[in-house]
Write a structure and sequence with these properties.
The protein folds into 2 domains: 54 residues, Orthogonal Bundle (DNA polymerase, domain 1); 250 residues, Alpha-Beta Barrel (TIM Barrel). The protein has 12 helices and 13 strands. The chain is elongated, with a radius of gyration of 21 Å. The relative contact order is 0.13. The structure holds S-adenosyl-L-homocysteine (SAH) and iron/sulfur cluster. Iron/sulfur cluster (SF4) binds next to α4.
């Protein structure tokens, strides 16, 4: 549970007996100032103290470890809930635009062979407030670092967002309505849960969709991404088509380049065959090594060749820059206790907010 799970009515019940405008003050304190109630000097001292000790308004997350890239452009947090559930949140500051990469579950049940989170197994779903609270922490950190407002939110941390559909949707809605983050600035990344994609296509809130493809034929995808046995590429591409037609949003395909597994020119041509008809943008990420998967990421030259082959076949493609190795591609690494190259540990045991 998180204070960001509370509805306005529930907050009003906590503040019963106080003047009605106190509800707005505390609500705005949480969502606009990204403040802890104990910091709200607009409140009378007594009330502030009372709220500071109310468990319903306590922060959901404690910071267990923080790492940052050398140039202080990327921060990665390992967060822990009172029940011991651990997730990670990454804040990436590219120039003026900062992106929060947040988790939707502790662990993940999808079991993708190359993924550190998948190797951990499933812990539990996060509540919508626990997801929102990661975004608020990122927004607060961005402002405190003098980087303006948080720009984007991507659900590419731990967990499969569409396997926790209801809470993820509620979190996206709240980020939109209360934190002022536009639907175009939010991205859901999925391993390919077809019913979830179809449901998302029909939502009034139309966010960006990233599909973690990694293989463009069923035989290989069955192996890398076990959920493909349930929702094969035909069904997945059908759902992607529906998403594009319903939302007119460009979707992206994520592709972790794995040496000798999915990085040949033939793989690129197969991928082009899926991406081009959908106008999908392809993001290439060299595989980040994990202990449970003994295959290396593709070499830079293999990634470049793969990219060129896609371009030659009319596909828009981006190679995630090497900082991806620090953080973007490091899905689940911190929680798995794996050292992440290029990041240094800066604090342990501190409390956020
Ligand atoms: N479950 C969702 C979102 C979280 S994973 C999904 O799978 O899309 C975020 C991204 O990191 C996905 O694209 C995933 O395929 C990728 N990823 C996982 N492990 C990785 C690794 N070891 N190297 C590179 N990318 C990885
Ligand atoms: Fe889960 Fe995504 Fe990792 Fe697969 S890649 S195990 S869906 S977090």
């Amino acid at each position: 549970m998180s204070r960001f799970d509370l509805s306005r009515e529930e907050l009003a019940a906590i503040l019963a007996g106080e003047p009605a405008y106190r509800v707005d003050q505390v609500w705005d304190g949480l969502y606009r100032l990204h403040a802890d109630p104990s910091e709200l000097t607009s409140l009378p001292r007594m009330l502030r103290d009372l709220l500071a000790h109310d468990p319903r308004l306590a922060p959901a997350w404690v910071l267990v470890a923080e790492t940052t890239s050398d140039r202080d452009t990327t921060w990665k947090w390992l967060l822990e809930a009172p029940d011991g559930a651990r997730v990670e949140t990454v804040v990436m500051g590219y120039r003026t635009r900062t992106t929060a990469c947040v988790s939707s579950q502790a662990g993940c049940a999808m079991g993708c062979s190359f993924c550190a989170t998948g190797q951990l197994g499933f812990g539990r779903h996060l509540t919508s407030g626990e997801i929102v609270e990661q975004v608020v922490l990122a927004a607060r950190h961005t402002e405190q670092a003098g980087r303006g407002r948080l720009g984007n939110v991507v659900l590419m941390g731990m967990g499969e967002p569409l396997a926790n559909y209801r809470n993820v949707l509620a979190a996206l809605r709240r980020c939109n309505e209360e934190l002022g983050i536009g639907a175009r600035s939010m991205t859901v990344s999925t391993v390919g849960i077809v019913p979830g994609i179809l449901r998302l296509a029909a939502e009034p809130l139309q966010v960006n969709l990233a599909v973690s493809l990694h293989a463009a034929n069923d035989a290989l995808r069955d192996e890398l991404v076990p959920v493909n046995r349930r929702y094969d590429l035909d069904a997945l591409m059908g759902a992607c088509r529906r998403y594009v037609d319903a939302t007119h949003r460009r979707i992206s395909f994520e592709w972790a380049c794995i040496a000798g597994v999915n990085d040949s020119p033939r793989d690129a041509r197969e991928l082009a065959g899926l991406a081009r008809p959908l106008g999908a943008h392809v993001n290439l990420i060299p595989l980040n090594p994990t202990p449970g998967y003994a295959v290396a990421g593709s070499t830079a030259s293999a990634v470049a060749r793969f990219r060129d082959e896609l371009s030659d076949h009319g596909v828009n493609v981006t190679v995630r820059n090497t900082r991806g190795r620090d953080v973007e591609a490091a899905c689940g690494q911190l929680a798995a206790g794996v050292a992440v190259g290029g990041l240094r540990r800066v604090a342990v045991g501190a409390r956020l907010a």
